[in-house]
Write a structure and sequence with these properties.
Layout lengths: L3 H6 L3 H21 L3 H26 L3 H31 L13
């Protein structure tokens, strides 16, 4: 039976790099071009997942579990971010009945 790192090493490392770069670029594009707060939020999560994929791939190729442990902590922080971020989005929606980021200047004093 093959171990997981052996299976991951069958795919060349540059495939992981290109795939992570593509995911990260899609996330950056979503953050910069969209005005919907939930889509911006999902784009930030996509960027975090791209970084996590790259950390896990490098960790597997080097046979060092430190990268995978770091991925675990990033996922824990991302889960907390989701809880706080969605709570903020719900409160903004309750106050101004939209989640369009262009209208958020109404919240200024």
């Amino acid at each position: 039976m093959q171990q997981i790192p052996d299976v991951i090493r069958q795919i060349p490392l540059n495939y992981y790099v290109f795939f992570s770069a593509a995911l990260f670029c899609i996330g950056v594009t979503g953050v910069l071009t969209r005005r919907n707060a939930i889509i911006i939020f999902m784009s930030v999560e996509l960027m975090l997942n791209a970084v996590n994929l790259l950390l896990a791939a490098f960790s597997s190729y080097k046979a060092d579990p430190a990268g995978q442990i770091f991925v675990f902590f990033i996922m824990a922080v991302a889960a907390a971010e989701v809880a706080v971020g969605l709570a903020i989005i719900v409160m903004i929606y309750r106050n101004i009945q939209t989640i369009d980021t262009g209208i958020l200047n109404k919240l200024k004093w």
